[in-house]
Amino acid sequence: MTERVPIAIVGASGYTGAELMRLCARHPGVAIAHVMAKRAAGQRVGDVFPHLAALDLPIDAFDADAVAARAKLAFAALPHGESAPIVAALRERGVIVLDLSADFRLRDPAAWSTWYGGHGATAGDAHPAGGLLASAVYGLPERHRAAVRGAQLVAVPGCYPTAAILAAAPLLAAGLVDPDGLIVDAKSGVSGAGRSPSQATHLPEAGEGIRPYKVGGTHRHTPEIEQELGLAAGRELRVLFTPHLVPMSRGILACVYARPSDASRPTEAYRAELARAYAGEPFVDVLAPGALPDTAHVRGSNRAQVTAVFDLRTGMVLAMSAIDNLVKGAAGQAVQCMNLVLGLPETTGLDQLAIFP
Amino acid sequence: MTERVPIAIVGASGYTGAELMRLCARHPGVAIAHVMAKRAAGQRVGDVFPHLAALDLPIDAFDADAVAARAKLAFAALPHGESAPIVAALRERGVIVLDLSADFRLRDPAAWSTWYGGHGATAGDAHPAGGLLASAVYGLPERHRAAVRGAQLVAVPGCYPTAAILAAAPLLAAGLVDPDGLIVDAKSGVSGAGRSPSQATHLPEAGEGIRPYKVGGTHRHTPEIEQELGLAAGRELRVLFTPHLVPMSRGILACVYARPSDASRPTEAYRAELARAYAGEPFVDVLAPGALPDTAHVRGSNRAQVTAVFDLRTGMVLAMSAIDNLVKGAAGQAVQCMNLVLGLPETTGLDQLAIFP
Amino acid sequence: MTERVPIAIVGASGYTGAELMRLCARHPGVAIAHVMAKRAAGQRVGDVFPHLAALDLPIDAFDADAVAARAKLAFAALPHGESAPIVAALRERGVIVLDLSADFRLRDPAAWSTWYGGHGATAGDAHPAGGLLASAVYGLPERHRAAVRGAQLVAVPGCYPTAAILAAAPLLAAGLVDPDGLIVDAKSGVSGAGRSPSQATHLPEAGEGIRPYKVGGTHRHTPEIEQELGLAAGRELRVLFTPHLVPMSRGILACVYARPSDASRPTEAYRAELARAYAGEPFVDVLAPGALPDTAHVRGSNRAQVTAVFDLRTGMVLAMSAIDNLVKGAAGQAVQCMNLVLGLPETTGLDQLAIFP
Amino acid sequence: MTERVPIAIVGASGYTGAELMRLCARHPGVAIAHVMAKRAAGQRVGDVFPHLAALDLPIDAFDADAVAARAKLAFAALPHGESAPIVAALRERGVIVLDLSADFRLRDPAAWSTWYGGHGATAGDAHPAGGLLASAVYGLPERHRAAVRGAQLVAVPGCYPTAAILAAAPLLAAGLVDPDGLIVDAKSGVSGAGRSPSQATHLPEAGEGIRPYKVGGTHRHTPEIEQELGLAAGRELRVLFTPHLVPMSRGILACVYARPSDASRPTEAYRAELARAYAGEPFVDVLAPGALPDTAHVRGSNRAQVTAVFDLRTGMVLAMSAIDNLVKGAAGQAVQCMNLVLGLPETTGLDQLAIFP
Hints:
4 copies of one chain form a homotetramer. Chain A contains 11 helices and 13 strands. In chain A, helix 6 (141-149) links the parallel strand 5 and strand 6 (153-155). Helices cover 30% and strands 19% of the residues of chain A. Chain A has helices spanning 15-25, 45-48, 64-70, 83-92, 109-116, 141-149, 159-173, 203-206, 222-233, 269-278, 327-342; strands at residues 5-10, 30-36, 73-76, 96-99, 136-138, 153-155, 182-188, 211-212, 239-245, 252-258, 284-286, 304-311, 316-323. Chain A folds into 2 domains: 5-138, NAD(P)-binding Rossmann-like Domain (Rossmann fold, 3-Layer(aba) Sandwich), CATH 3.40.50; 160-325, Dihydrodipicolinate Reductase, domain 2 (2-Layer Sandwich), CATH 3.30.360. By secondary structure, chain A is α/β, with parallel strands linked by helices. The first copy, chain A, has a 7-stranded mixed beta sheet with strand order 8-9-7-10-13-12-11. In chain A, strands 2-1-3-4-6-5 form a 6-stranded parallel beta sheet, with helices on both faces. The two termini of chain A are 33 Å apart. The relative contact order of chain A is 0.14. The interface between B and D is medium-sized, with 19 and 19 residues.
């Protein structure tokens, strides 16, 4: 491989930042040139993440000029709202950006305002960098590979949307299921809540129980799922999305319930369509008939397990997927997009097998 | 309270048996007169369950005459198929039986044959004690209290059915939701798989991941859910049931998705109906608006948390419940039924608050 | 039982407060007359602890006069330093107090200053209510039953000290082991860290790993263990104490390593001495030879499992114990002490069997 | 890198076998030429381990001639006793063997008979391939690097011994601690018990509690720890070893308690000696003062965290370590040894960073 591309990571003190460092540090095509975080500036990576101490990297405060001077490409792993201005500053300086926040995922600026534009008095705030939306590409290579290849700004998908879309989009795109009445019942490990501690993520509260949260169309990943499944279906659609918190660190399991467009189709048709759609995909494993996804089987890897079954008794379709929320649901997918943007083989630096058990 | 009723427990070496002992040992109206188990016969309870060592009880092999001589009422906590002949032997001798197996839950003997009647060559076996089915009462007091009061043979519901029925039956009974298209996405702790170890329940395999199993209408609790929700709805119905294994010991969370029968109803109507239906119920907590169920909040108790939300965006209803699978989903519910059968206050011996955290 | 004694709970928003409510609400000799907490004042118990919603109790701000007017006895479940002035105010008004903080556990006021008297500039602060120390009784009934019976102020032991003392004190008291060179290697569930979330207790950080903390004689339970083991041994001693955080909610397992005072003693002598010392103790189970303690077997109960083995190869003694840190290690022990203080049978309200699995 | 060395894995259906495949499949210097397992023969690796499905490898029955024909080097990941004859057959055919069983770890054949030589009537069986013991090298590179380099048969250390030796051996070798009176209190994730399910590893039994097992000098890793710490100390010694089962999949934390040989040494001397001894070691991180090991920080990696503290109050030393039991405690260490044997850079294929959280 030729010279390594210098890259920067903004927002290195969260779990997504940590995973970006884990993956990029062993990626043969890039070199981590600059690591930034707000509160952790001045510390070293090993102070914030002891498991990365071997990288021996300093953490700086964000400085757009410094990033532009040192790096060709930057990952932004920041909270929504906070990310957009930083992305804008980097784009102005010509830095390619892979943004892991939600700021550039929704194509409609009004949707951003509705779902992310503040609370209370500030609800409905305008997008802080709406002018960039047109150039942003939704970074799910399995759906938008060609566009990602040519992008300078990639909006890396959310974890739940990645799981839901991988399970359901091919069935919608092939017209096998009805775009109306979709239900996504998804279950996530607690790392999806980020690194900031809260009562909801305190081990004694979350460690030995399961609970739904933000039900009834209130979770912010809802419009993102709808946008992408709507694109697959070729028309607007609504999804009933129910997220759950599961007593484990990593992993998302998504169950997507759908009505078939034609009830007389062979039961194997749905899994077969997934197999057809993902033939050649380097990171999607369509399971053999009878096998079911398990988040334990993708932990630490960029792979997704998907399958679908047709329930003869009710005539409904159940599509399922399992991913590691921090890898295929965040940092791994970002690196996959980076490979496409940089013209590298898509799997470069992402061949880690899952850690099981 | 007057003299304690002598009771027997058959199948004391499983988790349900253990919970029956835990609850009955502190129940002021009964006395554990006889404890039986096949493989553990000859040992003491504390050898099999160290946490119950203080009970200092011997374990015998099953002997119907001995049970009849010592006890007025017996709990059978045995695998399906194995339970029916034992129940029959006890009933012949006039012993009241609370059966925690699936053998007397389905009113239609043909349904038992289909779902429980053997595998391979023996598939479709006839019910081993079909003659008793007519006299068996499905022991969900919140649905069949009067019948349970007069029963001599109670079929204690399965754990998943209890959770699903508590969440959805009142909405069906009130005609608020469409009996067609029901989906039950349920998540269970691993104790639901019983005490026999297997690779699927080996901690390194199950401890840090979530996975569905027996999807697509293959889990044996499906017909039981359908029977009871059908009774509530007043007509036959089908349910798409998806069970999951969650990395925790106890608890079931059920999400039931349904279409409203009238889309223009106020969003609060569904939760309000649950509140109305369960007013006065001693073990069902209808959560306040905005609150959501959590299995951690019912652990060790006989309580159920239920609620429902209407998703304005999709026009769908989501009813939810959380129970402890071994208590309200098994042993606690059996004791609740016993109280009714014996004419004791329904909450006797069941006032334990949940153990949290 | 005669009229219920009205009791108050100060500090109801923490885990210890919750356990006190769980136990006292079902205690036949007392009635919860008043529940207080600082930040949660104005809410109801069910808002703070959904699993206790059935109690339907309001939470007030602390008011010593109101407590004295309503209750004969109060539990204080507050942080150290914060507890002492409240205890003093209650004692002045004649209220019997069971204090679950560390403020009255150390008999030597100087020890309190050293271990609890502030940080930095305020290090070495004087005890905020040192005058009460002389009247305080260390509430470990298995060691100080008679004194607890006559006490008006009981200092309920810490969780680690309870586990360590139950395992080792009888061996020291009988002169079987050398008071020098004691090592306590103890492992705790995360609820021991309290209810305030922190990065150390955030599920993704603590949920799938084990780690020691505050090693090398820096944990504040060290002097408490030393005080009580010293009393058992009849002379001052030092203990090397190593606490660990285990990925579970509840439970403490303590391993105490000691040298025998006489290396030629039969190997069974140590366990036999524990059996002798705890004969008749209602809450201490000395395990059968070959059996070992397991925190899963005491979860939710006030019982302690203890045993000891002699290692023939090294000539060392290992004494072990398992307790539920929130029950025998906190609230259950406080209720046990309350029973003694009130002249009730010691096991009143504490007969719950452990919740397993 | 030049041509890949063809390697074989015998015993591919256990966790250690799976980890060997995970690591070797991405190792640039070797190619997996042959995978074997007894019961799983005829299946594919993905059938047994879905997380490794991407490897697309068949599983054969063991055949020594076939191994010799296809591979230059073999890993044996088999139970003790079962491994020795297979190792002998491979050595006879000139295959280099890295044996992950205990069969060649103890230099003294009599020790093998005592600790591993059968139960009951067969207790004290002779070593099945004692003639090979003289040529076997104990594969802990940090202690025996030069010998491993020249070995044709490497006995890869046990998981507990690796953790204990890494923490304590340098202190013994430098004469800083007394070889008498060593105590090893170690805590392991459940994967250490292997892949065969049992009641002890059934999630509901093991998932929410901690317990010791095989205490008092009965665990088979005891003589292995003693052998290696004795070599470090320059004389025979005995260790009191207490293993525990922790509710998590992976990781071992070891606490080694020791008396200093000179009580007046500066408190920092012990950690400093570890830092000195491990300077330049590629896989051992001596933690900064104040930092403590955490198994969550080494999960999935071949790294070990070690440190030591001196307890001023008791004058005792506590040395600690954390490893991933399946990587540095098994498969990773085996690959590290393989690299040495093959003359490859020691870190080849082992640069994976830990997966956290």
